[in-house]
């Protein structure tokens, strides 16, 4: 049995839309920060005594659609490796599922790593990134630590992630503000497809991302946390404009999301640099320089409760943990 640990990542420049649903090829490039505090541990063993794949997630046997996603992914690995046996898969999430905190990114990055090794494959990180992508798009970035770019590519071979800066040696951090950790009503997959097909603003999204990718990489090179935060914030708002402008329109925000956005704007007006980003869920992630951490925690803790704040430093890439 092989066990792998992969950390989740939060996109600073988002892709929001696929051009190939089967291979999970994105419409645009993207760029993310891997987080230390959120991760999945996944163990895989191919066994002679199993008549079907057995999948447990968080101490619960998984069936139906969720199981089929894992089984289809295992089938890809079986085809690659020649492994004929069924697998025992046990996974534990240290991140809320389906709440806009990229639980699928850490889950499939860990599964790709553990299952490929258990099947006898010895993939390099680029090929692991390509493999993980076929389980969950954002998983392609969770193979790596730190700041990571996903090249959209044009086919399976050319769509992969690679690190921009794995050892993040400047003061960027992120606070996850957990406003609601229940499962979202509109899945990322559904939401993306609706935006691609029906938002009149979607064609402009390609230009927005192309511009933001260049600007973000320049800001990272300059270790300019204010600029990184500003670009990420604007990119997030424009992504969520695609959800509002779809037909029918929808949003991942709730009242607390708006309240958190206003609180971060209020902090900035007081001279404390911090910025927000949101993915497909109501929870808000705050980007800031660690020197401002205590002031931000104090302010947001009084409004939302200290228990809802989780501080995360940049996290590492995927690794085998049971050697």
Automatic annotation (TrEMBL):
SUPFAM superfamilies according to UniProt: GHMP Kinase, C-terminal domain (SSF55060), Ribosomal protein S5 domain 2-like (SSF54211)
Entry superkingdom: Bacteria
GO BP term, pick one: isopentenyl diphosphate biosynthetic process, mevalonate pathway
UniProt-listed Enzyme Commission number(s): 4.1.1.33
Gene3D superfamilies the record matches: 3.30.230.10, GHMP kinase, C-terminal domain
UniProt domain Mvd1 C-terminal: residue ranges: 176-308
Keyword vocabulary terms for this entry: ATP-binding, Lipid biosynthesis, Lipid metabolism, Lyase, Nucleotide-binding
GO molecular function: ATP binding; diphosphomevalonate decarboxylase activity
GO cellular component, one term: cytosol
InterPro entries tied to this protein: GHMP_kinase_C_sf, Mev_decarb, Mev_diP_decarb, MVD-like_N, Mvd1_C, Ribosomal_Su5_D2-typ_SF, Ribsml_uS5_D2-typ_fold_subgr
Domain Diphosphomevalonate decarboxylase-like N-terminal: 6-161
Matches recorded under PANTHER family: DIPHOSPHOMEVALONATE DECARBOXYLASE
Family, per entry: Belongs to the diphosphomevalonate decarboxylase family.
This protein's name: diphosphomevalonate decarboxylase
Species annotation: Limosilactobacillus fastidiosus
């Amino acid at each position: 049995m092989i066990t792998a640990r992969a950390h989740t990542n939060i996109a600073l420049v988002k892709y929001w839309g696929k051009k190939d649903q089967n291979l999970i090829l994105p419409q645009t490039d993207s760029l993310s920060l891997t987080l230390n505090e959120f991760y999945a541990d996944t163990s895989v063993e191919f066994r002679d005594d199993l008549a079907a794949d057995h999948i447990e997630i968080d101490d619960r046997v998984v069936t139906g659609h969720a199981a089929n996603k894992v089984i289809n992914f295992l089938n890809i690995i079986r085809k690659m490796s020649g492994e004929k046996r069924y697998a025992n898969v046990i996974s534990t999430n240290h991140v809320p599922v389906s709440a806009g905190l990229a639980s699928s990114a850490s889950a499939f990055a860990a599964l790709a790593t553990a299952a490929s090794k258990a099947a006898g494959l010895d993939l390099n990180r680029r090929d692991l990134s390509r493999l993980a992508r076929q389980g969950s798009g954002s998983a392609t970035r969770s193979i790596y630590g730190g700041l990571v770019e996903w090249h959209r590519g044009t086919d399976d071979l050319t769509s992969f992630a690679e690190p921009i800066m794995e050892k993040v040696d400047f003061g960027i951090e992120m606070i996850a503000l957990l406003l609601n950790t229940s499962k979202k009503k509109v899945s990322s997959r559904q939401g993306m497809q609706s935006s691609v097909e029906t938002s009149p603003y979607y064609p402009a999204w390609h230009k927005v991302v192309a511009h933001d990718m260049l600007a973000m990489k320049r800001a990272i090179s300059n270790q300019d946390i204010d600029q990184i935060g500003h670009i990420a914030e604007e990119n997030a708002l424009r992504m969520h404009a695609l959800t509002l402008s779809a037909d029918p329109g929808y949003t991942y925000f709730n009242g607390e999301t708006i309240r958190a956005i206003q609180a971060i704007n209020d902090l900035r007006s007081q001279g404390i640099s911090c910025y927000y980003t949101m993915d497909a869920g109501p929870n808000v992630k705050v980007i800031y320089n660690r020197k401002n951490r205590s002031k931000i925690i104090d302010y947001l803790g009084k409004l939302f409760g200290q228990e809802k704040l989780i501080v995360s430093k940049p996290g590492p890439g995927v690794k085998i943990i049971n050697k």
